Amino acid sequence: MRHHDKNRKFGRERGVRRALLRSLARNLILRGRITTTQARAKEIRGMVEKMVTRGRNATLAGRRILVSELGDARVVGKLIKTAAKYGARPGGYLRIVKMGPRKGDAASMALIEFV
Questions:
Q1: Domains and CATH numbers, the chain
Q2: What is the pLDDT of residue 25?
């Protein structure tokens, strides 16, 4: 029985894993949609949805927390503009669409995008 198995490790140490997820979140916010593996898409969905919820009411403290999580003020500005569209929506800002397997290693791929 695997207790405490909520987060995926992706075969990486903690710092490298955090950098990977932060990079995926940044790219998703800047581009609006990215194609990645299903496991990575599922892992960043909750992370980005919490960021959008925090960005909906753009207080100075909220901005500072988002900058510390994302590491870039430019991305935070784009996130707050995106979050303004979801003012009355109570969550579920992202959609994951399953795609076919990747050609090289047959990893299941997915498209993650803002609704």
A1: 14-114 (3.90.1030.10)
A2: 98
